[in-house]
């Protein structure tokens, strides 16, 4: 039996919530390192290789968003059944999630591989160019191994529902370390690989190149490294699940799909898939709006506006790592306590999470506001136009970080209860009602230029948090227990 899962249904809530959330934040940081390693070594290949990676990422991210939504169903079902003490049902829903999402990933693998040459030009590649060919090569390799990537996501989600986030963190660390080690060799091979020079092994590189003639796989090498390292992590995770060493005890019969359980997975997971994929589309739409606003703003270069927005979004993603950790931790807290028939404790967990993220982000907001110029200068030195636009972005958006953090935590509460449609609706409202239309109106009719987009982002964060929290306080989500003990006893008999 695992000793890494935390007790979320009894005693103090603060310590177990932090114990659950901090490893998630660290795993997210390692994911950033994962991506940076790929970008760094691909950058040694050339500009076209980096462009190919950039063009491929939206398709890969869309696929991850859709599949990741269904893994959330595994988190919710495992958490609520564990809280209810239905350990046999925990094993069942875990096996069902693995089987269903694996079948889904095989479908994505085939479709993505076949359609990659068609979908990439829709994003902006030109067929026949080197960038297009490299992007197709990278994307197809990722799609061929997508079930390995999904396998690791499933393991993370199931263990999170059980209350163990440290084991997935250790496997993530293993995967990142392996990826960092093999990236330079698979991408650059034994010819002009700067790693050998840094290590003082130039002679060894010459000998290896003479013996093998291996010059690396280029961009495709990054994809191979990602699939291989994630694949080993997924296999290790499944071994732990089937061995019972992490608390969940899977058997082959748990993988035989049952229609009732699959319907629950789809009911819970589909809204989250829609939510995550539309969030990615929302960033694309905002980028187009920023470009539109830049063209209409006197004294502002369009490319400078888009560059500032891109850096601002990346800064935001780093800022909200704690919010993501608390959001996913809250999913488990709410799920387990609703399963244990302790709705008031589940609600208290969300209030606690909102308080924690407020306390953390108030300092982050202040730092981003007062040090906006030096922060942006680090990322793009020597570009005063981009820095000026970026400073404007931070000083308008940063004061609303607290609201966006609260919105994330409350959304986690909705998901943990199984109310994934509610979380989806609020995300859609935030993007497509409170943010993008006002941004267009402020640019087109308000004459505010790119600042109009920044104000719309800030406004939507405040409105979304206030409305979502007000809806949360109604308490209707407390009735949305997807697997009560009574239901579990009757299910699948």
UniProtKB/TrEMBL annotation:
Record's keyword annotation contains Transmembrane: yes
Record keywords: Cell membrane, Membrane, Transmembrane, Transmembrane helix, Transport
Keyword Transport assigned: yes
Principal location listed in the UniProt entry: membrane
Transmembrane segments: 17-37, 57-78, 98-120, 140-159, 171-190, 222-243, 352-372, 387-410, 422-441, 453-472
Top-level taxon in the UniProt lineage: Archaea
GO molecular function: antiporter activity; xenobiotic transmembrane transporter activity
Membrane topology designation: Multi-pass membrane protein
GO cellular component: plasma membrane
Subcellular location field: Cell membrane
Family matches, as NCBIfam families: matE
Matches recorded under PANTHER family: MULTIDRUG RESISTANCE PROTEIN NORM-RELATED, MULTIDRUG RESISTANCE PROTEIN YPNP-RELATED
Protein's name according to its UniProt entry: MATE family efflux transporter
């Amino acid at each position: 039996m695992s000793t890494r899962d935390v007790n979320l249904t009894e005693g103090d809530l603060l310590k177990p919530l932090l114990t659950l959330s901090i490893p998630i934040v660290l795993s997210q940081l390692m994911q950033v390192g994962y991506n940076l390693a790929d970008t760094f070594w691909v950058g040694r290949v050339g500009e076209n290789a980096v462009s190919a990676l950039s063009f491929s990422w939206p398709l890969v991210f869309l696929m991850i968003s859709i599949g990741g939504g269904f893994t959330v169903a595994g988190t919710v079902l495992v958490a609520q059944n564990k809280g209810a003490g239905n350990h046999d049902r925990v094993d069942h829903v875990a096996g069902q999630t693995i089987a269903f999402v694996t079948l889904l990933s095989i479908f994505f693998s085939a479709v993505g591989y076949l359609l990659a040459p068609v979908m990439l030009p829709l994003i902006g590649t030109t067929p026949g160019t080197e960038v297009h060919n490299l992007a197709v090569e990278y994307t197809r390799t990722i799609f061929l191994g997508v079930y390995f990537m999904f396998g690791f996501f499933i393991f993370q989600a199931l263990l999170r529902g059980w209350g163990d986030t440290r084991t997935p963190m250790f496997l993530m660390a293993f995967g990142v370390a392996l990826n960092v080690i093999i990236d330079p060799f698979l991408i650059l091979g034994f010819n002009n690989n700067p790693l050998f020079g840094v290590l003082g092994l130039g002679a060894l590189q010459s000998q290896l190149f003479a013996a093998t003639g291996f010059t690396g796989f280029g961009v495709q090498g990054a994809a191979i490294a990602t699939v291989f390292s994630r694949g080993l992590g997924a296999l290790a995770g499944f071994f732990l699940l089937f061995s019972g060493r992490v608390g969940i005890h899977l058997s082959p019969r748990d993988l035989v799909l049952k229609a009732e359980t699959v319907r629950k997975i789809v009911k819970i997971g589909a809204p989250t898939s829609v939510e995550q994929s539309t969030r990615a589309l929302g960033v694309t739409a905002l980028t187009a709006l920023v470009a539109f606003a830049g063209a209409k703003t006197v004294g502002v270069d369009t490319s400078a506006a888009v560059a500032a927005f891109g850096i601002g979004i990346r800064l935001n993603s780093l800022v909200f790592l704690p919010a993501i950790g608390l959001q996913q931790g809250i999913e488990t807290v709410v799920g387990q306590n609703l399963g244990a028939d302790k709705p008031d404790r589940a609600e208290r967990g969300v209030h606690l999470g909102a308080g924690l993220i407020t306390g953390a982000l108030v300092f982050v907001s202040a730092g981003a506001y007062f040090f906006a110029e030096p922060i942006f200068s680090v990322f793009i030195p020597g570009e005063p136009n981009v820095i000026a636009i970026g400073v404007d972005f931070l000083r308008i958006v940063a004061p609303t970080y607290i609201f966006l953090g609260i919105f994330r935590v409350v959304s986690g509460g909705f998901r943990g209860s199984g109310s994934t449609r509610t979380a989806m609706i609020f995300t859609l409202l935030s993007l497509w009602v409170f943010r993008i239309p006002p941004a267009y109106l402020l640019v087109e009719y308000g004459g505010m230029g790119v600042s109009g987009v920044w104000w719309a982002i800030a406004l939507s964060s405040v409105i979304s948090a206030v409305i979502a929290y007000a809806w949360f306080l109604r308490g209707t989500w407390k009735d949305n227990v997807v697997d009560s003990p009574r239901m579990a006893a009757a299910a699948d008999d």
